[in-house]
């Protein structure tokens, strides 16, 4: 594995703001959210699966848990592929101003983002 690219990964992740939430392992994360129903009656709060670092064929190794997407955020899955299409890395979380993009060039890799807000944990199956 190319160490310089792996060291640059945190910079890529920070640029896309996927590293929101806690780095603590939270299998059964519980949070309470209070919403005042004035002008926000159509507000939909959703929870997203979070994993900052997962290699193919392995379980989440860093940042496993659940994040709560704000009104400006969506659940996202980011995947990094080698140029030949071989999966190299996956990350999930809540992302502000999320957009579906495919094959962003990043050195010798291609990065794809998929976003959803349809239901809780919708990014698990993207």
TrEMBL record:
Ranges that cross the membrane: none
Matches recorded under InterPro entries: LY6_UPA_recep-like (IPR016054)
Keyword Ribonucleoprotein in record: no
Coiled coil: none
Lineage top rank: taxon: Eukaryota
One Pfam family from the record: UPAR_LY6
Residue ranges of every copy of the UPAR/Ly6 domain listed in the record: 45-124
Entry keywords, A to Z: Signal
Signal peptide positions on this chain: 1-21
Name assigned to this protein: Prostate and testis expressed protein 1
Biological classification of the source: Eukaryota, Metazoa, Chordata, Craniata, Vertebrata
């Amino acid at each position: 594995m190319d160490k310089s690219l792996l060291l640059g990964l945190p910079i890529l992740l920070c640029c896309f703001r996927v590293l929101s939430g806690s780095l603590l392992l939270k299998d059964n994360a519980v949070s309470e959210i209070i919403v005042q129903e004035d002008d926000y009656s159509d507000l939909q709060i959703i929870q997203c699966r979070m994993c900052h670092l997962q290699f193919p064929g392995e379980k989440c190794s860093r940042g496993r848990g659940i994040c709560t997407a704000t009104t400006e955020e969506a659940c996202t899955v980011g995947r990094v592929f080698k140029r030949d299409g071989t999966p190299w890395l996956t990350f999930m979380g809540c992302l502000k101003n999320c957009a579906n993009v495919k094959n962003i060039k990043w050195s010798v890799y291609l990065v794809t983002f998929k976003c959803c807000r349809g239901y809780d944990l919708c990014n698990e199956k993207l």
